[in-house]
Amino acid sequence: MAVGDWNGDLKPDVAVLNGAQGNMVILLGDLSGRFPTTRQTFAVGAASKQVIAGDWNKDGKLDLAVVNNTPSTVQIFRGDGTGLFSLSSTLTTGSGPLSVIAADFNADTRLDLATANSVADTVSVFLGNTSGGFNAATTLSPGFGPRGLAAADINKDGKLDLLVTLGKVSQEGQLALMTGNGTGGFTLLNTLFVGPAANAAAVGTSTGTGIPTWPRRATPGTRCRSRRASARPPS
């Protein structure tokens, strides 16, 4: 589910995925909590996993991106600012994507996308372009069974980094840190064991400094007892 103001009336609206039915429903809010207006219904993948909102083409109107596990795609929907959306393009990911995030990986003020592809053991990065679309994917290899993603400047060099939860190996959930180069490229720095079922990642600070921290020289595969960049399965 994604929440945003699709029609510019300053009231929260929602987009809801129905994975079993293979559709997405756009609901407009009226502040009553009832969302009485079904604006549109779209066909999406038979196993859609996540929908996120962002202004992909920088026109001041919210758009949507839907990640589909089957087929392995991201569908891009353009918003017109009145609550209506239209399918703009379909991006091909690695096999079995489970999640998608949006961030500006190359500091060009345009949002980019990244998907965690659990079957392919890859992350697909799509850089936003000046036409309002996305370039073909570049492929990262963070480890076995990528599931969740988070973006933050972990090492405070002014460039966004990626955190990737890994969960393919039984009882060996991991968190991989991939440092960004500021142009949309990433390099695997290290991997920590975080628990048997690492599904999602979130970034913050537990030091009171406002700076996310990470063991910079940890040996890859080191078990982590005290984690400041943590991953946990959703409740």
Q: How much β-strand is present in the residues?
A: over 45%
Low-confidence stretches: 215-235
How would you classify the helix and strand content by structural class?
A: mainly beta
The main sheet comes to: 5 strands, mixed
SSE order in H/E notation? Answer: EEEEEEEEEEEEEEEEEEE
Structural Rg: 18 Å
Topology, number of strands: 19
Task: Report, as a whole number of angstroms, the end-to-end distance.
Answer: 16 Å
> Within the largest sheet, what's the order of strands?
13-14-15-16-18
Tell the overall outline: globular
- Work out the helicity level: under 10%
Please specify the SSE layout and strand pairing.
Elements: E1 2-4, E2 13-18, E3 23-28, E4 37-43, E5 48-54, E6 63-68, E7 73-79, E8 85-92, E9 97-103, E10 112-117, E11 122-126, E12 138-140, E13 146-152, E14 161-166, E15 173-180, E16 186-195, E17 200-203, E18 222-223, E19 229-232
Parallel strand pairs: 16-18
Antiparallel strand pairs: 1-2, 2-3, 3-4, 5-6, 6-7, 7-8, 9-10, 10-11, 11-12, 13-14, 14-15, 15-16, 17-19
3D structure, described in words:
The chain has 235 residues and is an all-beta fold. It is 0% helix and 48% strand. The protein is built from no helices and 19 strands. The protein has strands at 2-4, 13-18, 23-28, 37-43, 48-54, 63-68, 73-79, 85-92, 97-103, 112-117, 122-126, 138-140, 146-152, 161-166, 173-180, 186-195, 200-203, 222-223, 229-232. The strands form five sheets. Strands 13-14-15-16-18 form a five-stranded mixed beta sheet, with no helix packed on it. The chain has a four-stranded antiparallel beta sheet with strand order 1-2-3-4, with no helix packed on it. β2 and β3 (23-28) form a beta hairpin.
